[in-house]
């Protein structure tokens, strides 16, 4: 799956971008969109269906079907199912992404502040508890020892 599902398509995508062949570029973009959805679905099916006879072989055959220039499976799935579904849900998805970005920023700021507060508190505690030990240790040195340090 790594070779056929990712490495070969990545190289073919590189060649399409390099040659500036729009038709090939669009073909590989459709492939990557469908393959990403396949990978997301696979996360769940791998938990539920690995007991199914020839499960892994069917996954491999599906990837080859997506990839094949004869079947154009990725283009077929993209045009029949993915594009119409994404077109219908585009506004909802965009709203969700904006909300997720805002929440993630707020969460990062919250945890960042909390982490800095914890680090500052720990530094102050360490300094105050070790201050007595440090002063006692310094008193044990003679002035000559301190000068040499």
UniProtKB/TrEMBL annotation:
The chain crosses the membrane at residues 28-52. It is a multi-pass membrane protein. Belongs to the DP1 family. Keywords: Cell cycle, Cell division, Endoplasmic reticulum, Membrane, Microtubule, Mitosis, Receptor, Transmembrane, Transmembrane helix. It comes from Buceros rhinoceros silvestris. Its main location: endoplasmic reticulum. One of its GO terms (molecular function) is microtubule binding. GO terms for biological process: cell division; endoplasmic reticulum tubular network organization. InterPro entries: TB2_DP1_HVA22. GO terms for cellular component: cytoplasmic microtubule; endoplasmic reticulum membrane; endoplasmic reticulum tubular network. It is found in: Endoplasmic reticulum membrane; Membrane. It comes from the Eukaryota. This is Receptor expression-enhancing protein.
